[in-house]
Amino acid sequence: MNHIVSKRIVAEAERSGRGIALEDLRGIRGRVKARKPQRATLHSWAFAQLGGYVAYKAQRAGVPVVYVDARYTSQKCSSCGNVDKHSRKDQATFECTCCGFAEHADRNAARNIASRGVVDWAAVKRPNADAIAA
């Protein structure tokens, strides 16, 4: 399944001429608080394997990949930038307590990851000021 998903992700990035932003998921199993029924599903999914497949397939295709800090991506409003844990009404619902923006919680988090990816990619491509001055 991870091969299929990673192939589709890379193909879409290549088709659209964009890069890929992934959450830096190191230590996720220790950070996530899941109810007992959700633990088996969470711990059986191979995060590292999927990330590895995306990375190597993207490299072969010439698609840039950046890893972004995952903190607060599900609590931050992708419209106004407000961070509030109460904006996450439940697993599927995001409604900003500041501006009222509402959409599926995963889509909102994906927008936040994408915007962090754009910022991180710009930082990677920015020339080193010290090297220019020398």
Q: How far from one another are the termini?
A: 50 Å
The description of the largest β-sheet is: 2 strands, parallel
| Number of individual domains | 2
Spans where pLDDT lies below 50 across 5 or more residues:
none
Please tell me the overall pLDDT: 85
* Physical arrangement of strands within the biggest beta sheet: 1-2
Class by alpha and beta content: mainly alpha
- Residues in β-strands, percent: 5-15%
Give the SSE string. HEHHHEEEHH
Give the radius of gyration.
Answer: 17 Å
Proportion of residues in helical segments:
40-55%
| Form type | globular
Q: Helix tally? A: 6
Features:
two-stranded parallel sheet; two-stranded antiparallel ribbon; 4 strands; 10% strand; mainly alpha; 2 domains; 51% helix
How does this structure look, described?
There is one protein chain. The mean pLDDT is 85. The strands form 2 sheets. This protein has a two-stranded parallel sheet with strand order 1-2. It folds into 2 domains: 1-68, no CATH class; 71-134, no CATH class. 16% of the residues are buried. It is mainly α and 134 residues long. It has helices at 2-16, 28-31, 36-44, 47-61, 105-125, 129-133; strands spanning 20-23, 65-68, 93-95, 102-104. The chain is globular, with a radius of gyration of 17 Å. Helix content is 51%, strand content 10%. Helix 1 packs parallel to helix 4.
